[in-house]
Amino acid sequence: MTKKDRYKYCLKYFQQNMPNAETELIYDNPFQLLVAVVLSAQCTDKRVNLTTPALFERFPNPDILSKASVEEVFLYIKSISYPNNKAKHLVGLGKALVEKFGGQVPLTINELITIPGVGRKTANVITSVLDNQPNMAVDTHVFRVSARIGLTTNAKTPLAAEKQLIANIPKQLVHIAHHWLILHGRYVCLARTPKCEECGISACCKFYAKHCMN
Ligand code: SF4
Question: Quick check: 214 pLDDT over 70?
Fold first, then answer.
């Protein structure tokens, strides 16, 4: 199967079987999504969703967050990975939104990456989720799943994988393909023991052809 065929096959499968895939982070507005995505680095969405209700109640907008102490924010997020750094980032994030962006979450990568705690991956998530921009955030799931299926070849870094995926996925599907690959990695193509026998795209998977077929 050619690479082009792999893309065609798995994108069609996902379109048919996961037409409404979306982020599992719970949020009500762009500010809350940005905070949740920053918190989700090296942490599960499930854990973030347990933490954010109280956090959002105490710090409902960028202005209030910008005036908070790092110590108080820490108390709300201490069960999340890297709470010290993330507490600092969140206060800085509140300040940046208020001082540079009028309290709004900007929707360009270049603006987003100036905000504390926001790197390229987070900026890609924000712009694709909030604005359907054709940006691909490559996290650990996307990186692993894409390589196993054979959608990426010899991609050594997330950025290399991102470039290959963007070059091959039709522009209008990039924003949802991000969720397809994440959810497939989270529930089927698990890191240690991929559930190949119940996987709907095994027919186009390079890993399956190499390791699971007699
Ligand atoms: S066949 Fe296995 S390795 Fe390939 S995508 Fe499915 S679960 Fe992952």
Answer: no
- Residue 188 CA, closest ligand 1 atom number: 7
28-70: pLDDT as tens digits: 999 999 999 999 999 999 999 999 999 999 999 999 999 999 9
Q: What's the whole-model pTM score?
A: 0.93
Q: Considering only CA atoms, which residue is closest to atom 2 of ligand 1?
A: 196
CB of 146 sitting under 6 A from ligand 1: no
Answer yes or no: is the C-beta of 149 below 6 A from any ligand 1 atom.
yes
Active-site annotation, residues: 121, 139
Asked whether residue 17 falls in the same domain as residue 37, the answer is no
Cα gap 19→208, rounded to integer Å: 24
CA atoms within 13 A on the CB side of 49: 9
Q: Is 190 in the same domain as 157?
A: yes
